[in-house]
């Protein structure tokens, strides 16, 4: 029987969340390195190289892999013989650990959690509360499985009530393309089958906490029907050709994890949740002897991938950019941006729309400018800004025409744009570029200065002006409305299918 101190739980949570903010799980790095070696799509290979290079930089610099440091989810298995010391509930302990982790002065993490979610959406400023799931088990010890899930991947969660005779792989194959690229592939899929609707989604989330072992599974062969299902879904999803960042390629996912639970005879609930390229999770075990700390990974297991901009990349001066120059950009072309750009994301766009509707002047002019969809991490030491990777551009689609009407020339984000936004881009002769999601620390190195120019009260969602030098981006939608997120996967899906036919 263990006596577990509240302070030990708090410190274990704090340390684990700091650890996973800058250290990838080694199993993910090794699987991603194998995908990099096998990748044939130049655009996808470049994106994976940026993720791998960013991972090493983050590990060495102890700074977040991604600017979206996630909402904390905790699966707690509590031994029924555990005794507690400290006068706090488990929720209070976990929340205090989150608070200390996200306010750590040496590596502050971005506070993304908002209260009053249906209305005011006020940032809690310390990323609390965590989402806690508790299970009572035998014994006198405490196991905590912690994850920090970014909004880009969480927003792509899917659920369906299938008929008992319906095919799960068919549903997954149909559904994954509808998820777009906002979840920053290549990652993994967690799938929950059975129980009730909420149980299926909970199983899907918990499944993501397991280590990646698809290569080993394929090498030894499946031992049961669930493992057969994992392999089938893995192969069918990768055959879609979506690829890294949705640019088209061989690796869309690195693994599929499945948990199941008995269900009603008339039901077949299925939940699916992706893990993004950040893939942050940790397992800690407390037995009453003190705080639990994760072992430091061996950075020698990280591949030697030194990313550098393509020599073919076109250099763009943002301070002299014209609509004619934007019109000359080609889909899939790599650019290096230098000069001043504005930032803005969900809350800023909503406030801009409200101000314009009321006839109020905007605090900053967007005429002739480029906007970057980002919510950066606070800087430390000599940084001008913390990790500052792109957020999912699709959420800004409904504001795109409005912003282009203000004279905006181009936008930078991640993932695809929807038909409404593409139509507005084409009509305005503008463009949309992507930076690599999951390479936030690498991208931030291109930012030479940063200052808040509007909406300071929005915190990480304020409008900044960044001065950048050689910031790497790819033209995702050109001035004619051609999208690489459509053409890239189509091309690689065709290539993969042709190769399969030749091997048959």
Question: In brief, what are we looking at here?
Answer:
By secondary structure, this protein is α/β, with parallel strands linked by helices.
Tell me what the structure shows.
The structure is a single chain. Helix 1 crosses helix 4 (90-102), helix 2 (26-38) packs antiparallel against helix 3 (42-61) and helix 12 (397-404) runs parallel beside helix 13 (419-428). The protein folds into two domains: 3-287, no CATH class; 314-488, Fe-S hydro-lyase, tartrate dehydratase beta-type, catalytic domain (fumarase), CATH 3.20.130. The strands form five sheets. It has a five-stranded mixed barrel with strand order 14-15-16-17-19. A four-stranded mixed sheet has the order 6-2-7-12. The longest helix is centred in the N-terminal third of the chain and has 20 residues, at 42-61. The termini are far apart. By secondary structure, the protein is α/β, with parallel strands linked by helices. The chain has 15 helices and 19 strands.
Average predicted confidence as pLDDT: 97
| Cα end-to-end separation | 59 Å
Largest sheet: 5 strands, mixed, barrel
Tell the overall outline: globular
Q: Please count the helical segments.
A: 15
Integer tally of domains: 2
- Largest sheet, spatial ordering of strands: 14-15-16-17-19
- The helix fraction, in percent, is 25-40%
Q: Roughly how many Å is the radius of gyration?
A: 23 Å
Number of strands: 19
Class computed from helices, strands and strand pairing: alpha/beta
Residue share in β-strands: 15-25%
Q: Spans of 5+ residues with little confidence (pLDDT < 50)?
A: none
């Amino acid at each position: 029987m263990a006596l577990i101190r509240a302070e030990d739980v708090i410190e274990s949570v704090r340390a684990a969340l700091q650890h996973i903010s800058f250290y990838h799980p080694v199993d993910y790095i090794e699987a991603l390195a194998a995908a990099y070696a096998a990748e044939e799509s130049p655009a996808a290979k470049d994106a994976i190289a940026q993720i791998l290079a960013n991972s090493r930089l983050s590990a060495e610099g102890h700074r977040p892999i991604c600017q979206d440091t996630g909402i904390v989810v905790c699966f707690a298995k509590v031994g029924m013989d555990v005794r507690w010391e400290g006068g706090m509930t488990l929720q209070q302990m976990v929340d205090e650990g989150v608070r200390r982790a996200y306010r750590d002065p040496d590596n502050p993490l971005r506070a993304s959690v908002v209260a009053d979610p249906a209305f005011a959406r006020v940032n809690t400023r310390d990323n609390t509360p965590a989402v806690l799931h508790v299970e009572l088990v035998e014994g006198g010890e405490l196991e905590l499985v912690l994850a920090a899930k970014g909004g880009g991947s969480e927003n792509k969660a899917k659920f369906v009530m299938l008929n008992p005779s319906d095919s799960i792989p068919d549903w997954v194959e149909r559904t994954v393309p509808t998820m777009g690229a906002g979840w920053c592939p290549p990652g993994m899929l967690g799938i929950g089958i059975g129980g009730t609707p909420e149980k299926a989604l909970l199983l899907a989330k918990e499944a993501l906490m397991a280590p990646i072992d698809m290569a080993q599974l394929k090498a030894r062969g499946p031992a049961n029907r669930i493992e057969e299902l994992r392999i089938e879904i893995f192969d069918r999803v990768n055959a879609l050709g979506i690829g890294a960042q949705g640019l088209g390629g061989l690796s869309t996912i690195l693994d599929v994890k499945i948990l199941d639970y008995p269900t009603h005879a008339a039901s077949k609930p299925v939940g699916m949740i992706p893990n993004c390229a950040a893939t942050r999770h940790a397992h800690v075990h407390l037995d009453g002897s003190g705080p639990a700390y994760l072992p430091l990974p061996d950075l020698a297991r990280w591949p030697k991938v030194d990313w550098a901009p393509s020599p073919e990349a076109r250099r763009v001066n943002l301070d002299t950019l014209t609509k004619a120059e934007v019109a000359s950009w080609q889909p899939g072309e790599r650019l290096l941006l230098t000069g001043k750009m504005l930032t803005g994301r969900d809350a800023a766009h909503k406030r801009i729309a409200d101000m314009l509707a009321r006839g109020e002047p905007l605090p900053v002019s967007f005429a002739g400018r480029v906007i970057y969809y980002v919510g950066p991490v606070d800087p430390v030491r000599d940084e001008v800004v913390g990790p500052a990777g792109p957020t999912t551009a699709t959420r800004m689609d409904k504001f795109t025409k409005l912003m282009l009407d203000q004279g905006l020339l181009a936008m930078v984000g991640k993932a695809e744009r929807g038909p409404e936004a593409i139509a507005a881009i084409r009509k305005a002769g503008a463009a949309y570029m992507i930076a690599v999601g999951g390479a936030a620390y690498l991208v931030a190195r291109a930012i030479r200065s940063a200052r808040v120019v509007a909406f300071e009260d929005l915190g990480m969602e304020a409008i900044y002006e960044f001065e950048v030098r050689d910031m790497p981006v790819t033209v995702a939608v050109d001035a004619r409305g051609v999208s690489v997120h459509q053409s890239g996967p189509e091309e690689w899906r065709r290539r993969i299918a042709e190769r399969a036919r030749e091997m048959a």
